[in-house]
Amino acid sequence: MEPSQGFGSGAIRVASHAPVSFHSDMKSLTEYLWFEVPNRRGFVNITRTVEELVRKSGVTEGICLVNAMHITAAVFINDQEDGLLHDYEVWLEKLAPHEPVAAYHHNRTGEDNADAHLKRQIMGREVVVAITKGKLDFGPWEKIFYGEFDGRRRKRVLVKIIGE
Amino acid sequence: MEPSQGFGSGAIRVASHAPVSFHSDMKSLTEYLWFEVPNRRGFVNITRTVEELVRKSGVTEGICLVNAMHITAAVFINDQEDGLLHDYEVWLEKLAPHEPVAAYHHNRTGEDNADAHLKRQIMGREVVVAITKGKLDFGPWEKIFYGEFDGRRRKRVLVKIIGE
Amino acid sequence: MEPSQGFGSGAIRVASHAPVSFHSDMKSLTEYLWFEVPNRRGFVNITRTVEELVRKSGVTEGICLVNAMHITAAVFINDQEDGLLHDYEVWLEKLAPHEPVAAYHHNRTGEDNADAHLKRQIMGREVVVAITKGKLDFGPWEKIFYGEFDGRRRKRVLVKIIGE
User: Fold this and answer.
1) Scanning every residue of chain C, which has its alpha carbon at the shortest distance from the alpha carbon of B132?
2) Residue C105: how many other CB atoms lie within 10 Å
3) Chain A residues whose beta carbon lies within 8 Å of the beta carbon of residue B151
């Protein structure tokens, strides 16, 4: 039991299991997912694709890394609810507006996507998900999303699975 | 040695060690921590609990993933200092205000927690911590926190340890 | 194939490979990079240093964790473009201003770096990068940066490589 801290508090209860040792070899799987989002911005639920790759990997205990390979895109975990995805879009535009394009030094290079580099830092480049008993070890509402902030061209996401 | 970049600069010095090979089997440990924060928002220092799980795992070289399993909560690493936790609370409320509740489309579903989904993206879903010589390989002030943004109900955090 | 979701959409195509099994032992490498950024804030491109450590580790399939060991610094992946690094500096100062110092409770401890703790949450503590065929598995523009928000003193970054 840990003492509670800060302005709130909550008891910790641990659901306990014995550690597991493996006698088989380490496995890995590497896959690249391609996207071409037709608009500048968009969110794509990629959960089922990642689940299929976990099955294919044969890994029963390990981790699954999913990351954008482009620096104007994100991978994050949140809720599959259209209102929320709309709220993210509005919120990110407020925190890191696309306009005025000339306000960003990066756009002097001929790009107009400086805001996309900023938005991606809020949402995150990657997620690392535990694999337990051969499946993504997810809470009830966790879904993996690709977040595109400068679309209309082909981009990749990397899925790397390692474990036993 | 890497050239310095950007608007600041700093020399890199590398403290160097030989790579380590392991001849034992891979190990893993999976644990679920339960929380029920009595207020809507709160921070809980879970460092000691995670340290105990690392000991229990028997892993000496590897990584420890700690992630919220709910999408209105965060896991992050920062300082155990009450003033700072207060500053996070004020700052997150400014960047992603709870009110007006009706400003968020997500809240049309009957929820009032859209802001919690946004706040969690700033603070992060997960941390990945190195395990070296059987311990969390931490800097002097690093502490692991559970960040609750929509509490008053039971929620889980996953701890997954893999390594040798 | 996953259905598209949210306000945008994009087809997913998977570049497919067979899973790989390893018959050698697990390897790990632990290194500490030291920084002393001469200004309060600065960004340092550490990509080549991390690449050299991956080579040194001998790991061909695995992951590389790179994290700040101090809680007023970040490690993130984005573009080596001076205009963009300038834009990050301006943007972070807007989202989490240094002044007025007295606005933050944390600074009542005698510190003046509360904003640095906030800025680091936006940019992130760590990155996890896949290692494939002995190299960091990077998209065309991905570079690893150390982000300093309270410099003028020595600080460390941890590089942990595990795999086969």
Assistant:
1) C30
2) 17
3) 8, 10
Nearest chain A CA: its distance from C32 CA (Å): 22
Q: Quick: pLDDT tens for A24-45.
A: 578 999 999 999 999 999 999 9
Establish whether this prediction's ipTM goes over 0.95.
no
Architecture of domain C27-80+123-163: Sandwich (2.60)
3-state secondary structure chain B: CCCCECCCCCEEEEECCCCEECCCCCEEEEEEEEEECCCCCEEEECHHHHHHHHHHHCCCCEEEEEEECCCCEEEEEECCCHHHHHHHHHHHHHHCCCCCHHHCHHHHHCCCCHHHHHHHHHHCCEEEEEEECCEECCCCCCEEEEEECCCCCCEEEEEEEEEC
- For residue B131, what are the contacts with CB-CB under 8 A and spacing of at least 6? B54, B59, B60, B61, B62, B63, B64, B137, B161, B163
Inform me whether the C-beta atom of residue B153 falls under 8 Å from chain A C-beta atoms.
no
Instruction: For residue A64, give every residue at least 6 positions away whose Cβ sits within 8 Å of its Cβ, in sequence order, or none.
Output: A50, A53, A54, A128, A129, A130, A131, A136, A159, A160, A161
Instruction: Tell me, yes or no, if C109 comes closer than 8 A to chain B by beta carbon.
Output: yes
- Provide the token pair at B68: 């919220």
The CATH code belonging to domain B27-81+123-163 is 2.60.120.460
Residue C129, H or E segment: strand C126-132
Q: Is A61 on the interface with B (CB under 8 A)?
A: yes
Output the CATH code of domain A27-163. 2.60.120.460
Q: How far apart are CA A8 and CA B116, in angstroms?
A: 15
Tokens representing C85?
């690094």
Task: For chain B, say whether A136 makes contact (Cβ under 8 Å).
Answer: no
Which C residues in the span 24-43 are in contact with A, Cβ-Cβ below 8 Å? Answer: 26
Where would I find the beta strands (DSSP E) of A20-142?
20-21, 27-36, 42-45, 62-68, 73-78, 126-132, 135-136
Full-model pTM = 0.91
Q: Do A139 and B70 touch (CB under 8 A)?
A: yes
Minimal C-alpha gap between C122 and chain B (Å): 6
Q: A79-104 pLDDT, tens per residue?
A: 999 999 999 999 999 999 999 999 99
Residue A4 in contact with partner chain C when CB distance is under 8 A: no
Distance CA A80, CA A19 (A): 33
CB pairs under 8 A between B and C: 189
